[in-house]
Amino acid sequence: MTRFKSLSVLTAGLLLAGVAHASALEQFKSFVSSTKAAKGEFTQRQVKSTNGETPKISNAASGSFVFARPGKFIWTYSKPYEQVLQADGDQLFIFDKDLNQVTVKKLGDALGSSPAAILFGSNDLEKNFTLSEGGTRDGMEWLKAVPKAKDTSFEQINIGLRNGLPEAMELKDSFGQTSVLKLSKIEKNPALSATSFKFVIPKGADVFNN
Question: Among 91, 93, 105, 191, which is most exposed with the fewest C-beta within 10 angstroms?
């Protein structure tokens, strides 16, 4: 290995180590500021705990996602059922393939202090969330986000970061249920076309406007 290559490998290693030991808030702010778009895959489980009983864990749902800030994303469930949540910056479309049904919502109302706002919204996270460090767990640095709005369905959102990327999210609601998301194969700033997030109503679908 040449001296130049050795120096390059060493420099990259030091940079990676610096990211790995950075606080969750530092990692997340760096991710948000450097990532205008991204895509990847996810798995999702529901965990319900009641009165100290053994938590009930649902079977995993899985799929893929792609987003471009601000407010454009496609969140696709492929298993165990097919459903698409797609936002074009103005509206949110929820498509249930089995029912051939589309629900349309104004994006501002649907996003707000929701978990989607953290990954897909603007960079002004502290406007809607109180952010704090959540410690180290499972090899990740955790960020705690509490919605400032009182009418949100989530009480707390935890984000696990490793090497500058979000790898997990825990969404805790007021009914003792937690949605656990694992994110993988994340690609930052992929090439996307201007029409990537344009939703086309499927033929024959029932459309409901909320």
Answer: 191
